[in-house]
């Protein structure tokens, strides 16, 4: 059984974030665990899918660093099963060049991905970014339009009163659109404003827009709320009128 590190308390977070690292490569897992530990996180490890699910059920993590290629049960299935138990941020580790696999990871609910080989420091920064965005924003400002409502403090979103099961990125994207109706944004704009990145794979934005449409549109194949602006990007149109 892999050991848990002693917790490190931080004033900004108010409590120690628990990270579950899932990778069957002991060298990668050890390096990632070491960097996360030094960054002040409580870290647990698993080297296969079933063990990861067991660890997650015993001590629910605040974030999972999940390798896509695992023995017995791949990372996609692990991510699906974790999502079935409740929302948890996931950063997927993928091999460089496996674009289809990265897209699949985003489709099943991963919030971010890092390609191998990667810089452990970059991974820690990604972890910090995802965790920061997963914490409720104490704004007290509820957003609503077109039957959609977002409560940033509770991290809760609804459509016509019914709860929406959104990932971290989908929630942030919907909140951003509700704050800025009627304005067109490029994928670069959305990556910078919603993701907080100045660079990255723009297909990440495309996938999250598609997933969000599947949850908020009456007919995702003919979106009326989140419209494509050809040659530009996307626009949230509360009226549902196609312009």
UniProtKB/TrEMBL annotation:
PROSITE patterns: OMPR_PHOB, RESPONSE_REGULATORY
Span of domain Response regulatory: 18-131
Coiled coil location: none
Sample GO molecular function, one term: transcription cis-regulatory region binding
Assigned keywords, A-Z: DNA-binding, Phosphoprotein, Transcription, Transcription regulation, Two-component regulatory system
GO cellular component, one term: cytosol
InterPro entries noted in UniProt: CheY-like_superfamily (IPR011006), OmpR/PhoB-type_DNA-bd (IPR001867), Sig_transdc_resp-reg_C-effctor (IPR016032), Sig_transdc_resp-reg_receiver (IPR001789), WalR-like (IPR039420), WH-like_DNA-bd_sf (IPR036388)
Gene3D superfamilies xref list: 3.40.50.2300, 6.10.250.690, Winged helix-like DNA-binding domain superfamily/Winged helix DNA-binding domain
Record has Transcription regulation as a keyword: yes
Domain of life from the UniProt record: Bacteria
Residues with the 4-aspartylphosphate modification: 67
Annotation: DNA-binding region: 134-238
A single GO BP: regulation of DNA-templated transcription
Pfam families in alphabetical order: Response_reg, Trans_reg_C
Matches recorded under SUPFAM superfamilies: C-terminal effector domain of the bipartite response regulators, CheY-like
Limits of the OmpR/PhoB-type domain: 134-238
Protein name, per record: PhoB family transcriptional regulator
UniProt organism field: Streptomyces roseochromogenus subsp. oscitans DS 12.976
């Amino acid at each position: 059984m892999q050991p848990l590190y002693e917790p490190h308390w931080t004033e900004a977070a108010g409590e120690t974030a628990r990270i579950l690292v899932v990778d069957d490569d002991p060298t990668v897992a050890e390096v990632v665990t070491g960097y996360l530990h030094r960054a002040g996180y409580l870290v647990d490890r698993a080297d296969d899918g079933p063990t990861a699910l067991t660890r997650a059920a015993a001590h629910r993590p605040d974030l999972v660093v999940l390798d896509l290629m695992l023995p017995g049960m791949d990372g996609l299935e692990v991510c699906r099963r974790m999502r079935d138990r409740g929302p948890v941020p996931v950063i997927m580790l993928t091999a460089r060049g496996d674009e289809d696999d990265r897209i699949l990871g985003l489709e099943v609910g991963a919030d971010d991905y890092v390609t191998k080989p990667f810089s452990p420091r970059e991974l820690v920064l990604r972890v910090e970014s995802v965790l920061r965005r997963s914490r409720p924003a104490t704004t007290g400002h509820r957003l609503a339009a077109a039957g959609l409502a977002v409560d940033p403090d509770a991290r809760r979103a609804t459509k016509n009163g019914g709860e929406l099961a959104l990932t971290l990125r989908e929630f942030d994207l919907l909140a951003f659109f509700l704050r800025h109706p009627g304005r067109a944004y490029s994928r670069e704009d959305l990556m910078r404003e919603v993701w907080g990145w100045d660079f990255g794979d723009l297909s990440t934005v495309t996938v999250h827009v598609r997933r969000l449409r599947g949850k908020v549109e009456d007919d995702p194949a003919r979106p009326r709320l989140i419209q494509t602006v050809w040659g530009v990007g996307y626009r949230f149109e509360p009226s549902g009128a196609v312009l």
